[in-house]
Amino acid sequence: MIEQFSLVTGLSDHTQDNTTALTSVATGASIIEKHVILDRSHGGPDDSFSLEPNELAALFTDTKVAWEALGRVDYGHKSSEKGNVKFRRSLYVVKSLKQGETVTHEHIRSIRPGFGIVPKHLSKIIGSTARINMEKGTAVKHDNLLTSDNT
């Protein structure tokens, strides 16, 4: 639903415990609706699936933990990794390229340090066009190429 309609989604939960609500967070639910009752022993039409205050507090705490456990996608370098860049591989020019020239496997290699485009993007780089002259030893950067992604 999130992808199809581009909307915030949630769960209207009428189960007797918090398991369904907690697992809904892992599938993308941002809103959880549960019935609340001050004391289940007083009865009522929804008492069997309503949360008492201590159960509501547990739902709040546990869903917050579940949400935070999902984390955020971040492919950038973390501050703790800055010193390790020299040990990573990236794409470098190993045969000089002239502006307008098509990039081939002869021009690019995956070598250290990691100051260029990461090697997993090699297939996108091959066949692209050099925007500028690039000498042997230049780290390949997206700004220096015309690819189908940035034309």
Can you offer a commentary on this structure?
- The chain is an alpha+beta fold and 151 residues long.
- The chain has two domains: 2-70, no CATH class; 84-146, Type Iii Antifreeze Protein Isoform Hplc 12.
- It has four helices and six strands.
- Helix 2 (19-26) runs parallel beside helix 3.
Key traits:
151 residues; alpha+beta; two-stranded antiparallel ribbon; Type Iii Antifreeze Protein Isoform Hplc 12; two-stranded parallel ribbon; 6 strands
Order of helices and strands: HEHEHEEHEE
Mean pLDDT: 90
Count of discrete structural domains = 2
Distance between the termini: 32 Å
- Record the strand order, biggest sheet: 1-2
- What percent of the residues sit in helical stretches (DSSP H or I)? 10-25%
Per DSSP, what share of the residues sits in E-state strands of 2 or more residues? 5-15%
Q: Secondary-structure map with pairings?
A:
Blueprint: H1 2-5, E1 10-12, H2 19-26, E2 31-33, H3 53-70, E3 90-93, E4 108-111, H4 122-125, E5 129-130, E6 145-146
Parallel strand pairs: 1-2
Antiparallel strand pairs: 3-4, 5-6
Write a compact overview of the structure shown.
By secondary structure, this protein is an alpha+beta fold. It contains 4 helices and 6 strands; from the N terminus they run αβαβαββαββ.
